[in-house]
């Protein structure tokens, strides 16, 4: 279970002329290796997994392991259809992934039983450990504590990636404690929603599944290491210094478009790096992003 | 524009052992031909388009035209990525479709500009007329009147499929009138949400894009013809007689699972006809569906 602790960085999958920009992707992974992240999760929401073909996903999984220099790689396998999920499991296994990330992607609203059965099917078909990916903003599925508990009992479910939310420190600790009690300590708990990374770690989360940390690993590692060393105040301060970045996420509807704009601004990926129909930020919005990058000295 | 009027029936795409049940699908299309529907929309939400590969979608488009005996066929081309949408346009054209249905499917929340640009890209790349598919329950995108107006100005956008909602007859008429005013009479307006079909037609909608009518065309045609003949009360009465069916849709979270259960109960498709992870109704729920089918004499 220590596999799913610390900072797991979610790289973008940069697109160029509708194809994966493999050179840029390799560069993003090498950056994460240099920074010393604890693990890399390829093909998360930040990695645009839902927009790629099975073949593209297999290639990204292979490239990630190839460039990760031994750092554990987890691969997002979510898809609308169970049949596709299983194909992604096979390609992630073949690539040498050490873990899998599974979100209940939906078009038709899924029931709790649909989702449980999906996870049961996947866990019974692979030996790789699985992170339950709770991301209601994109999947439009709402997990309950009871479903967390049922999933944690499945052999192979080793971590839960919970959404971030604004809570006071005592409330956040109580929230994490409730999840831990419900899941009987059978899983690690990872926070997502980057603005809540420090608060989540300080509240007892074992991991930070960080979107922006896939592009800007160094400041996110500083927060993570402070929290891991018991320096909660220091972690909070470091996160507070990044408030202008978190504000961009709120203002521009989430982290993906902002993170892509940062990577484009820093020259890590080519312009228009998101898959259409997602146009990305407007020019005016990109200028605001560039200002924040300069002010905070992000690179 | 008369192409997009009257009853457009949305058949299921039945699944059997994870593959398309082609024999059952052909039977569903022949049923619609026999009933005399005005058009057939293949690969709508009811046709599980989002769950099928590009190749499967091409095959379904071809089969529909092949069995439609000259009845106009529209094909759903929506997909998460513009690249896939364009591939679906090409296969629908090759199949001989007379129209296209496009929903702004999302994983990352789409902006108004993302959606407008998607429709602009598609309309500029095909001569086939397009139905704008407004289905917030599955796409999680909310259209505004202003966006309707912008889309209606695109050459090739010929109809808008609006979601059903509970409104008084005068409010419903005013709602349709507002859309008509905003879109400058450049599109037909079609109601969806089957419980609201009669009310929508009575309120001035030109078309009924009906999910359950893809499986039970005869009662839905009776409602449509009554409304078209100006017999609003008769249309309302016929719809009211089906209230136990509409109640099942409310109770079992939408029309898809209920419609599939009806088709399975009537032997039109094999059991477990929906794509996993969608398990479909439970056995107890299926018994309730069978009771309603018997009570209402549906076949």
UniProtKB/TrEMBL annotation, chains A, B:
Transmembrane segments: none annotated. Gene3D superfamilies: Aldolase class I. GO terms for molecular function: 4-hydroxy-tetrahydrodipicolinate synthase activity. Pyruvate binds at residue 46. Keywords: Lyase. The active site is at 133 (proton donor/acceptor), 161 (schiff-base intermediate with substrate). It holds the Pfam family DHDPS. InterPro entries: Aldolase_TIM, DapA-like. Belongs to the DapA family. PANTHER family: 4-HYDROXY-2-OXOGLUTARATE ALDOLASE, MITOCHONDRIAL, DIHYDRODIPICOLINATE SYNTHASE. This is Dihydrodipicolinate synthase family protein. The lineage of its organism: Bacteria, Bacillati, Actinomycetota, Actinomycetes, Micrococcales.
């Amino acid at each position: 279970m220590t596999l799913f602790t610390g900072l797991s960085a979610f790289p973008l999958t940069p697109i160029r002329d509708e194809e994966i920009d493999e050179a840029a992707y390799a560069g993003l992974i090498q950056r994460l290796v240099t920074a010393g992240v604890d693990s890399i999760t390829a093909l998360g929401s930040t990695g645009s997994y839902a927009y790629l073909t099975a073949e593209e996903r297999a290639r990204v999984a292979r490239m990630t392991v190839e460039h990760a220099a031994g750092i554990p790689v987890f691969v997002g396998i979510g898809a609308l259809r169970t049949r596709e999920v299983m194909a992604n499991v096979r390609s992630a296994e073949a690539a040498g992934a050490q873990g899998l990330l599974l979100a209940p992607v939906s078009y038709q609203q899924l029931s709790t039983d649909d989702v449980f059965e999906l996870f049961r099917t996947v866990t019974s078909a692979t030996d790789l450990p699985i992170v339950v990916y709770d991301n209601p903003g994109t999947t439009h599925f709402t997990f309950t504590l009871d479903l967390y508990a049922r999933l944690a009992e499945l052999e192979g479910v080793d971590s839960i990636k919970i959404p971030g939310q604004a809570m006071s420190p005592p409330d956040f600790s109580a929230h994490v404690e409730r999840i831990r009690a419900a899941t009987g300590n059978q899983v690690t708990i990872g926070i997502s929603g980057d603005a809540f990374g420090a608060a989540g770690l300080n509240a007892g989360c074992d991991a930070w599944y960080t979107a922006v940390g896939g592009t800007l690993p160094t400041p996110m590692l500083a927060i993570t290491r402070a929290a891991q060393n018991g320096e909660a105040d220091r972690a909070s301060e470091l996160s507070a210094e990044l408030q202008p970045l978190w504000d961009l996420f709120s203002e521009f509807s989430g982290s993906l478009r902002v993170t892509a704009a940062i990577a484009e601004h820093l020259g890590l990926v080519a312009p228009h790096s998101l898959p259409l129909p997602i146009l990305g930020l407007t020019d005016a919005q990109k200028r605001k992003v560039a200002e924040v990058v300069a002010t905070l000295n992000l690179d």
